[in-house]
From TrEMBL:
GO terms for molecular function: aspartic-type endopeptidase activity. The keyword Cell membrane does not apply. Belongs to the peptidase A1 family. This is Cathepsin D. PROSITE patterns: ASP_PROTEASE, PEPTIDASE_A1. The lineage of its organism: Eukaryota, Fungi, Dikarya, Basidiomycota, Ustilaginomycotina. One of its GO terms (biological process) is proteolysis. Residues 1-20 form the signal peptide. Its EC number is 3.4.23.5. Keywords: Aspartyl protease, Hydrolase, Protease, Signal.
């Protein structure tokens, strides 16, 4: 399945940014494949691989935080090497097809254009070896700084950091850092050939002297302001706005909450069905994932939930005729998830899969709030005022 996702960029019109394109530049993005086969049956292998990737991403992020900040992250839950498997309480067979799902769009380094996933849960820009050839760019520079980042089931991105000219939606910046992996860490996942991080620098694996790509755009005044806004939809009309807030994407008021950039993540206090949680807002994760014990506690309040486990992930199914009630409260505002947002495909017994999961070995005391929630709200990420804004989609 392909889905058009457009970038709308708020551009600087001053002469100092003469290279900037006109306002309302748009790029078509694709929703990278799907976790579902015909009949909306969930692909268990693709999904558990994705969950493993998320787990490894956060383990790396906490290690990066300690190296960059000289202390453990306040959310640290487990020893990073601990891969305990507490299991689930049953098994439901799921159909295995070969598809996956993330949001991807085009960027350009050194005049070379390739697809990349936009991830508010990480900070570095990493690409596969064939996506970018530094030798083809007249302004590329090998810094000889080495990087290494775990990505999935034993898959690792590793290589050297280059700096080069960067462009996205007509917005340009010079000397932006890109990790050119010598090994393929994203396999068979066109159109994406890399990851572009939108979290804060304190969790980046690159040395501190390199800033994430959006910070580079901001420092070089390629954007009017340090804000970006995700509005993701299951059909057409999904957007990522850079450099401004587009009020046409939401209705009603925007609820703002403060964010501490020193912690690296887009992190806020929240409640899910009244249960207090720490929530990391992560565009690079598909569902809502929490520590297994906390997820079990939340699900106890729902009727008709059948647990199953796969690959260290505890999930649930429910009768499709009786969708559970789930709402997430942020900043005192309840955002109720709709029937379609709570549908994550079918198990082969005909029941619906619930898009809230417990993850064994999750290295921190926080929930990862992904695409399931993104499709209910328009989210404003404000690096100028260190805050996030949430509003119901228009």
């Amino acid at each position: 399945m392909q889905l058009s996702l457009k970038f709308v960029a708020g551009l600087v019109l001053a002469s100092s940014a003469a290279f900037a394109a006109e306002d309302n530049v748009e790029i078509n993005l694709q929703r990278r494949n799907s976790f579902f086969s015909t009949g909306n049956q969930l692909n268990v292998n693709a999904f558990t691989t994705h969950q493993s990737q998320v787990n490894n991403k956060y383990k790396d992020a906490l290690e990066n935080f300690k190296r960059n900040m000289g202390r453990d992250h306040p959310l640290l839950r487990l020893l990073l090497g601990d891969k305990r498997n507490n299991g689930g309480s049953g098994t439901v067979k799921l159909t295995d097809v070969q598809q996956e799902q993330l949001w991807a769009g085009d960027v350009s380094f050194g005049g070379q254009t390739f697809g990349i996933d936009f991830d508010t849960g990480s900070s570095d820009t990493l690409v596969n070896p064939k996506a970018y050839d530094p030798k083809k760019s007249k302004n590329s520079k090998n810094t000889h700084d080495y990087f290494r980042a775990a990505y999935g089931d034993g898959t690792t991105a590793k290589g050297f950091i280059y700096t080069d000219d960067f462009e996205i939606a007509g917005l340009k910046a010079k000397n932006v850092a890109i990790g050119h992996s010598v090994s393929e860490f994203i396999q068979d996942q066109e159109p994406s050939q890399g990851i572009a991080g939108l979290a804060f620098p304190s969790i980046q694996s690159f040395p501190k002297k390199y800033t994430p790509f959006f910070e580079a755009l901001k420092k070089q005044k390629a954007v009017n302001s340090g804000v970006f806004q995700f509005t993701l939809k299951p059909g057409k009309g999904s957007t990522l706005v850079l450099g401004k807030v587009d009020s046409s994407k939401y209705k009603g008021k925007v609820t703002y909450v403060d964010v501490d950039p020193s912690q690296g993540f887009w992190l806020t206090d929240a409640k899910i069905n009244g249960q207090k949680i720490k929530a990391i807002i992560d565009s690079g994760s598909t569902i809502i994932t929490g520590p297994t014990d906390q997820v079990r506690s939340m699900v106890k309040g729902l009727k008709g939930m059948t647990p199953f486990s796969s690959g260290g992930t505890l999930m649930y199914t429910y009768d499709c005729k009786n969708t559970p009630n789930v709402s997430i409260n942020i900043g005192g505002t309840d955002f109720k998830l709709s029937k379609s947002q709570l549908f994550f495909g079918h198990a082969n017994n005909g029941q619906c899969v619930f898009p809230v999961a417990g993850q064994d070995g999750l290295p921190m005391e926080a929930w990862i709030v992904g695409d399931t929630f993104f499709q209910a709200v328009s989210i404003i990420f404000d690096t100028d005022k260190n805050r996030m804004g949430f509003a119901t989609q228009a």
